[in-house]
Every structure is written in C-alpha cells, then in structure tokens.
C-alpha cells in the first residue's frame, strides 16, 4: 500500500512583470515572495524522493493569456 509523502498547492499566475504593471511594487514583491516559497516547497518534495506524482491542474493557459 502506498502512502502520501507530500502535498502541495500553488498559484498558477506568477508573472512578476504582470503584477508590477497591475499592482505596482507591492504586487511584484508578493509574487516574488510566493515564487521563493514555491521553490522551498519543491525542495521539500525532492527531499521526500517520491516514487510517483499525481498532479491536478487546469489548462486554461492553453486557451487564454494574461492579456484577455
């Protein structure tokens, strides 16, 4: 029987340039901090050395862009 070794979730819209334009310096800072936290989350995932991954994601970027 397998066991869950790691669980994580993250935002899917992390473009610092977009948030700089839309929200100014504070928006860019928040996105940069979120990206750093996601990198740390990735490090924790790698440390767990999982045998398999189950990823649940949407594909809206295939149909839409930041300019919609």
What can you see in these coordinates?
This protein is mainly α and 68 residues long. The protein has a domain at 16-62. It is 49% helix and 0% strand. It contains 1 helix and no strands. The N and C termini lie far apart (45 Å). The model has no long low-confidence stretch (mean pLDDT 84).
Structure summarized in a few sentences:
The chain is mainly alpha-helical and 68 residues long.
Radius of gyration: 15 Å
Query: Could you state the order of secondary-structure elements as H and E?
Result: H
Average pLDDT, to the nearest integer?
84
Q: In percent, how much strand structure appears in the residues?
A: under 5%
Uncertain segments are none
Largest sheet: none
Structural class: mainly alpha
| Beta strand count | 0
> Tell me, what's the shape?
flat
Query: For the terminal residues, how far apart are their CA atoms?
Result: 45 Å
Total of DSSP H or I helical runs spanning 4+ residues: 1
Proportion of residues in helical segments = 40-55%
């Amino acid at each position: 029987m397998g066991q869950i070794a790691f669980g994580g979730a993250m935002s899917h819209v992390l473009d610092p340039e977009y948030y700089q334009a839309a929200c100014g310096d504070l928006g860019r800072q928040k996105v940069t901090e979120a990206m750093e936290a996601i990198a740390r989350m990735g490090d924790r995932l790698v440390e767990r050395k999982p045998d398999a991954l189950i990823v649940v994601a949407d594909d809206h970027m295939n149909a839409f862009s930041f300019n919609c």
